Automatic annotation (TrEMBL):
Pfam families: CHAD. InterPro entries: CHAD_dom, CHAD_dom_sf. Gene3D superfamilies: CHAD domain. It comes from the Bacteria. Residues 1-143 form the CHAD domain. This is CHAD domain-containing protein.
Length: 146
């Protein structure tokens, strides 16, 4: 197996942890930003991928939070996390609507009264608009690590 330090790129363990975290955030931020640019016309799978990237970014932001200690960074971090929560909530609701028909079918509940209401096209359109707005707010939120 060998020593992980001899196998790793020397620059990884010599760089400041804030630089490492910022690089992680930048990569994930770009995925969420680019992936969500057109949520209105995107398919369910694309929106789900944005949801996963958003979840990774939020978890990374929460994990590395102690590295960003200044008052300004803390304030920006709180705002960033709030924007992330809103985006995740909207994308999660969309995912629930998208997966409801298959879930109901798997449980043998497709014909139960009210089952079709769980994935109405009207509700989905509203959720997509809300998700697009949450994405815009996320993009406009100042990055705490910069």
């Amino acid at each position: 197996m060998g020593d992980w330090r001899t196998q790793a790129d020397e620059t990884l363990y010599e760089q400041p942890s804030t630089d490492f975290a910022a690089a992680v955030f930048d990569k994930l931020w770009k995925k969420v930003t680019k992936g969500g640019n057109n949520l209105i016309d995107a398919d369910d799978e694309t929106r789900h991928k944005v949801r996963i990237a958003a979840k990774k970014l939020r978890y990374a932001a929460e994990f590395f939070e102690p590295l960003f200690k200044s008052k300004a960074q803390a304030k920006r971090h709180r705002r960033f996390i709030e924007a992330m929560k809103d985006l995740q909530d909207q994308l999660g609701s969309l995912n629930d609507v998208a997966t409801a028909p298959d879930m109901l079918a798997a449980l043998g509940l497709s014909d139960v009264a009210g089952a079709k209401d769980l994935s109405s096209a009207e509700d989905k359109c509203k959720l997509i608009e809300d998700a697009a707005e949450a994405h815009r707010a996320f993009v406009d939120t100042r990055r705490f690590w910069r």
